[in-house]
Amino acid sequence: MKAAPALMVLAAVAPCAPAMAQRAERAAPELFSAGYLAQVLGSLALVVLCLVGVIFLLRRVNRIGQSGGAPLRVLGSASVGTREKVVLLAAGGEQLLLGVAPGSVRTLHVFAEPVVDEAALPRGSQRDFASVLRNANPLSGGR
Q1: How far is CA 118 from CA 76, 94, 109, in A?
Q2: Rounded CA gap, 61 and 123, in Å?
Q3: Residue 72: beta bridge partners?
């Protein structure tokens, strides 16, 4: 007697089985179909374009604060320890020698006469990536 309700349910579901199988076949996308690949490549192109746009905007925003005749300019620096540096700055027509360490910046000397001729230094010159990486890498010793 208990098998009769199960058979009734099975008899009611059996006609729906082919329709459910057809729906499952239609729902699964083919990975290498033209439409699917176009959708994936289009999404990738959109992400890359967004990244390029953000990089462009960041460069434009960062360039706003930099000007050729900035009142404060770093003329040179040298590492004197693992985390300590000596920096030569030009500020307000004077040149200052600063000691920079984690958590402190101290004026070491204010020069009465310019030590470095600022006119001889290139304006806005960009350092190459290798030198920036060498200076930022703690294992290279700042060479």
Answers
A1: 11, 11, 18
A2: 19
A3: 91
